[in-house]
Amino acid sequence: MRGSRSEQESGQKDHKSGADNTLSVRKLAHELNSLLDGSMRCVRLAEKALDTAAEAPGEGQSIEDALTRLRTAHLAMNDMAAVLDRAMSGGQVSRAELLGSSRTLGEEVSQVLATVAPLAERGRVVLEVEVSPEAAGLPAGPLGPVLANGLRNAIEACSVDGLTMRRVDASIILSRAGSELLILISDSGGGVRGEPVAGFTTKAGGHGLGLGVCRDVVTELGGRMELANIPFGRGAVLEVSIPLRSLAQP
Fold first, then answer.
1. Which domain covers residue 135, as residue numbers?
2. Residue 164 — pLDDT band, cuts 50, 70, 90?
3. Distance CA 20, CA 10 (A)
4. H/E element, 143
5. Is 148 a domain residue?
6. b/e per residue, 230-250, with b = 16+ CB within 10 A?
7. Residue 219 forms part of a structural domain
8. What is the pLDDT of residues 20-44, one digit of tens each?
9. pTM here?
10. Is residue 59 part of a domain?
11. pLDDT at 176 over 70
12. If DSSP states are collapsed to H, E and C, what string results for 177-231?
């Protein structure tokens, strides 16, 4: 979870130029690309599973795996179509409305995990995500992109040569007072270079947009987001808190 100075400056300029409540073209393209990338990964894995089934006709598990991958890709493409439909509606659409989902948080986490798990597998990253029962039933709203970008950045921060530990842990829980949703994503990557700048600092070689989208959505929901190095250890931790009232169904 780190980025170059030019990427940070690019994120700052993007933030200043998009001071209204809408998503910039660059960030919209980033989100659509992420959905497309996740669906394509699932389709490729489904194709591989079907090839295995063709070579071994009695292998029922391969067909079931292919169907699961295709369902995940279908949902991702539906999400992409919904974002495009809202973006082309002609009216002013807020970030939360543009990226919102009708799924529960538990369902959204399952969908996000299905799309990022192949990325973790390719990078040999151990990925563990826990959702408390109290949080799972909440409406997801626009939190899918927050989770997807946070996890993707953490995974790619660990998917570099020279790391003996490649691990990403995430927890989604309610605060002790029960008034906020807390999302914590930690990784064992290289950490944040220099002074952490929430929303602008991202993985090495990235475009500096993913965590910017997270910041925009979290800010619109009245929440807080912090990105910092893990104290007394290697890696970074992304901490997000969202008031539960912001996730209430209309």
1. 5-21+95-247
2. confident
3. 17
4. helix 143-158
5. yes
6. eeeeebbbbbbbbeeebbeee
7. yes
8. 556 677 777 777 777 788 788 888 8
9. 0.77
10. no
11. yes
12. CCCEEEEEEEECCCCCCCCCCCCCCCCCCCCCCHHHHHHHHHHHCCCEEEEEECC
224: left (phi over 0), alpha (psi -120 to 50) or beta: beta
Residues in CB range of 208: below 8 A, 6 or more apart = 3, 7, 8, 10, 11, 200, 201, 202
Residues 250, 187 contacting (CB under 8 angstroms): no
Taken in order 69, 71, 73, 75, the sign of the CA dihedral is: negative
What's residue 107's pLDDT?
A: 94
Does the pLDDT at position 169 exceed 90? yes
DSSP 140: E
- Structure token digits, residue 50: 């079907």
Considering the domain boundaries, does residue 224 fall inside one?
yes
CATH number at residue 202: 3.30.565.10
Query: Domains in the chain: how many in total?
Result: 1
179-191 pLDDT, tens digit each:
999 999 999 988 8
> What is the structure's pLDDT at 249?
55
* Chain centre distance of CA 229: 19
Residue type, 146: V
Chain segment 52-63, per-residue pLDDT in tens? 777 766 655 778
Picking from 186, 112, 105, the residue whose alpha carbon sits closest to that of residue 145 is: 112
